[in-house]
Amino acid sequence: MGDTVDVRQRILAANEAAAAELRRSFQAQGTLVVNLISSPGSGKTTLLERTVERLAPGLRLAAVEGDIATERDAERLRRMGIPARQILTGGACHLDARQVQTALAEAAFPPVDVLFIENVGNLICPTSYDLGEDFKVALLSVTEGADKPFKYPAIFARAEVAVITKADLLPHVDFDLEAVRAQVAILRPGGEFFVTSSRTGEGIEAWCALLERRLEAKRA
Ligand SMILES: Nc1nc2c(ncn2[C@@H]2O[C@H](COP(=O)(O)OP(=O)(O)OP(=O)(O)O)[C@@H](O)[C@H]2O)c(=O)[nH]1
Ligand SMILES: [Mg+2]
Q1: Which of 12, 97, 106, 208 is most buried by its number of CB atoms within 10 A?
Q2: Model pTM?
Q3: Per-residue pLDDT tens for 119-139?
Q4: Does residue 86's CB lie within 6 angstroms of at least one atom of ligand 1?
Q5: Contacts of 6 (CB under 8 A, 6+ apart)
Q6: What is residue 39's DSSP assignment?
Q7: Which domains does the chain have, with CATH numbers?
Q8: Under DSSP, is residue 187 helix (H, G, I), strand (E, B) or coil?
Q9: Strands, E assignment, 68-201
Q10: Residues within 5 Å of ion ligand 2 by Cβ?
Q11: 199 Cβ inside 6 Å of ligand 1
Q12: Whether the Cβ atoms of residue 138 and residue 34 lie closer than 8 Å to each other
């Protein structure tokens, strides 16, 4: 048991070092970096598609996509007209900072204003891995149940931003939005909270405005 803890701590310490390097280079380039985390299918890639429609080409965007298998998400974003690089973890349930370093070195993106890192779909493993991002975003779709923030508290505590997705489905599901808002406020006092639908466009403007504000603040 002691050994297990020790190995985990060493892995996380190595990750912290790589994340610090990434953060320095993002700072030097003035790139805002957003790490998106949610269960599979909550709508991360779809939110990015809507975000690209709203913010490109005014802002230069790029994406790194983490998945166990397939290039599908990177292909979806390339179809939207932005550079995107797929990382295949071959089974690992999170991205680590070294993988992001390697992917960025290989991809050689042109300079970008905002880099999105879409993590492997789940609310658990990605929580402890810093990728040099400016902030984490935890997404929760209304079909997943209103108890999820308290059941997966670490991610909702670490994410500065919570995005509720698929709000267009609210009339069809039992999802107590105010209960979720209250849980998130307890786990992350003062965090940002958005209610969005990539289908109707609800909340997309406010989410994109946050990205613009944060980019401006980073460069101020
Ligand atoms: N009704 C509705 N469906 C949505 C919305 N956003 C995404 N979806 C659907 O949800 C499914 C999953 O969306 P993705 O964007 O691929 O989800 P993801 O989080 O990127 O999934 P992984 O990358 O596999 O973890 C797709 O069928 C989308 O069309 C939304 O706002 N409303
Ligand atoms: Mg996806």
Answers
A1: 97
A2: 0.97
A3: 999 999 999 999 999 999 999
A4: no
A5: none
A6: S
A7: 2-219 (3.40.50.300)
A8: helix
A9: 84-88, 114-118, 135-141, 161-165, 192-195
A10: 44-45, 73
A11: yes
A12: no
